[in-house]
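REQUEST ID: PR-0412
SUBMITTED BY: lab tech R.K.
PRIORITY: routine
TASK: structure prediction, single protein chain
INPUT:
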Amino acid sequence: MPEVHFANLFAVVLIALLAPLLLGLVPALRVPAVVLEIVAGIVVGPHALGLVDVDLPVEIVSLLGLGFLLFLAGLEIDVHRLRGRVLQLALLGYVITLVLGGLAGLGFSAAGWVHSPLLLAVTLSATSLGLVVPVLKDAGKAAGEVGQSTIAAASVADFAAVLVLSLVFSTEGGSTGERLVMVVLFALLVAVAGVAVSTAGRSQRIGVALVRLQDTTAEIRVRAAVVLLVAFVALAEQFGLETILGAFLAGAVVGLVDRDSTSHPQFRVKLAALGYGFLIPVFFVASGLRLDLGGLLDDPAALARVPLFLLALLVARGVPAYLSVRRLGARSTAAMALLQATSLPFIVTATQIGLTTGLMAPVTAAALVCAGLLSVLIFPAIALALLNQESSGAEAAGQSSSSGRGGSVG
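STATUS: complete
OUTPUT:
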């Protein structure tokens, strides 16, 4: 058995602890913890100070973190809200995103910056649901028309991006046609598993046992969710697909069958605690450890890719939001465009696949991750300001209307 050391993992989890703690101690520092985690990983990593490296324990926990990140992203999707006009606009918007991303990819390919225009288009096509939903909730817009349109568009984008990435750029080999057949077969098995889980959940005997064991040391619902996650990941691997597709669909299935949470209100909280409390931060810190900014910092021309990739992200994901401008208004649509263009976890995942397949140079991957970091820092803050301004304007208009009516009565 090879000798295993845990010093690097200790350093990684310490960073994962200190990043949100710093934000809690300095409220004025309005930066998502994930940004600090990646930046800290870059600073202490082998390409900077050289204090921490990605060894076997860090690698294993990081892989589990990636799986749980995609699992929780799938859990965020509310399939029952994806219908009608909202779904149509979300699907059309994603097609527009791929077209715009493909055009950007062709331009960057002509400049010699990317090897695969389609991979760049897919990398730019997702939205970070986990970052967007809190912003909408802070603005009190999550349940409104703006929030639902944004969440629907982000849900479709996340699902489609994971599917396309797995179908076209899988590291498992095989032709695209073969992978398409595998995706169909995999989807059928996922559907069967979803029906089986849903049917088992409606069994009175099983239901009583689940309620009795859910808040004991058995944590039976959490264990069942983890089993489903690992099963779908292993199944996707057996079918020659990216494991991220299995993790994402496992979350979607759990979210679909877990509609009535009255008997287990802490279930999702526990899953989030396991993911965001341990596994997922390790993935982000490890992503920073792997990121080599040397090529960007040494070459001003390479560093110029960062703002251009950020602009491409804003155009590719932001422009489709204007399909709803007549319904939502200019300010809300601008906020929706910025939120749709907020992306980081999927960019990190896609660039790692790009590096593994040789379709993306390290300097390009570093520039894309930096653009994702900037999108998380800039876009949600501006979107929240726009939504707050709209709310203040609506309240002022309502008060003015009330005063006008009161004066006419008097």
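NOTES: The CA atoms of residues 322 and 329 lie 9 Å apart.
REVIEWED BY: pending
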